[in-house]
Amino acid sequence: MKLRSPAPPCGLLLALAAMLLPTGAQAQSNRGGLFSSVGLTSDYRYQGVSNSDGNPALQGYVHWWRPDGFYAGLFATQVDFDDPGDTSYELDLYGGKNFDLEDGKTRLTLEAMFTAFPNEHVWGPTYNFIQFKAAARRTLGPWALTTTASFVPEASYGAGEAWRLEGEAAYALRPNLSLKAGIGRRWIERGHDRTYWNIGATATWKQLSLELRYEDTDLTPAQCGFTDWCQPSVIGTLRVDLPPII
Asked: Lowest CB count within 10 Å: 2, 50, 75, 193, which one?
């Protein structure tokens, strides 16, 4: 489990939004396209567990896509683990390749991601980890079905190997309104295995999107360190795509 800070680095994340997220919806060329967004979520959840102590978190990403299916990107978010070192932000650097099958409805994805917590104070094992992921996405009319499997050789804070299997179904009620539900299971070498699930809806208007979802896990308060990080919650996320400048 990725494991706070009473004073999150808003200046740093705003700088990332300004400098690293130069395009909004997209800026395409024969070299591909660049996508980016900034947003605010009422609670940053990672596989069902709060990584922001139940508090709001500022987030942003930049994503580069190529016509041959290769892609790379950077995701930044505030975190709040309530740890002695006041770890306050996370950076996810990822890259991979999409493979579109000839049926035009199926996409396979292979990805590697490095998750870092640059201002953690390492007195023991690090929070940082590497993750390898494979996913398959199938579209059937208004439905989009996704299955994801991932492997972490060494999870945060020396928790050993971690595996994840996750499924998600999305249904487009109309072009600007969709429903989504997902369920996942994570197995970890040193820690508590968990099942997590969510259901929600996303509405979009121009460059804005608003998502509301309900999330829960099967972890008990004792397994969650006697915190409310694993308790059921309704989470709202507001996101805006930044306008293109290139």
From this structure: 193
Q: Radius of gyration (Cα) for the chain, nearest Å?
A: 18
Cα–Cα distance between 4 and 8 in angstroms, integer? 8
Indicate whether 199 pLDDT > 60: yes
Beta strand 45-46 with 49-50 is: antiparallel
Please name the residues in contact with 26: beta carbons below 8 A apart, sequence gap of 6 or more: 33, 34, 35, 244
Per residue in 6-49, pLDDT tens?
Answer: 334 444 444 454 444 443 344 455 667 888 999 999 999 999 99
Cα separation of 83 and 98, whole Å? 37
Amino acid at 167: G
Query: What SS3 string covers 136-150?
Result: EEEEECCEEEEEEEE
Which residue matches tokens 């292979």? 110
